[in-house]
Amino acid sequence: MSADAVTFEFVRTTREFFPQLQKWLREPHVARFWNHDTADADIERDFGGSIDGTEPCEDFLVLRGGLPFGFIQRYRIADYPEDLALLTALVEIPPGSISIDYYVGDAQHTGQGLGTAMISAFVTKCRADLPDATAIVVPVVVPNRASWRALEKAGFRRVGEGHLPPDNPIDDGAHYISRLDLDESGPIQPVSPAR
Question: What are the residue boundaries of the N-acetyltransferase domain, all occurrences included (predicted)?
Fold first, then answer.
């Protein structure tokens, strides 16, 4: 593997990963925008359903070089009718659209382009795993510049903005909504992070 190559592995979340998720969700750069309760019962409530198949999303621990790096989940927007209604009021949501949520776990890995590279790799995975998915539509609260810039650098384009209920009550609900059509121009080009 060349020095510039960045490879990611996406491993379906199991309960053995819950302590890692708890640790990351307590990190200030993650907690600011995820605003997630991190007691054992809260982690079970919010991530157990994906493992058990009672929640229609797929959660992944992201590994980089075999080591825990971050978290990403995907879901079909139509499986969450309330979210679909809120988004449809702001932008077009093509049938078959999915959405993703993500974070880089440790602050030392932020600001280097690695989040963008992770998103790009996951887009490639989504194209391979979900051939009927048409687009990835992602709302991001406006103050989370690192997140919406990572999407832009990964090939997403901003298609709208407007109010959505924020995850953190300190935010006013202003969101940018980005979209990447999965049938556009074949595979996304890998992104080399800044060193």
Answer: 8-183
Number of structural domains (the chain) is: 1
The domain of 127 spans 8-181
Q: What's the one-letter identity of residue 67?
A: L
What percent of the chain lies above the pLDDT cut of 90?
84
Residues 3-32 as b/e (b if ≥16 CB within 10 A, e otherwise) read eeebebebeebeeebbeebbebbebebbee
191 found inside a domain: no
Confidence check: pLDDT of 101 > 50: yes
**Is residue 100's pLDDT more than 50?**
yes
Element (H, E) at 18: helix 18-25
The distance from CA 16 to its chain's CA centroid, rounded to whole angstroms, is 21
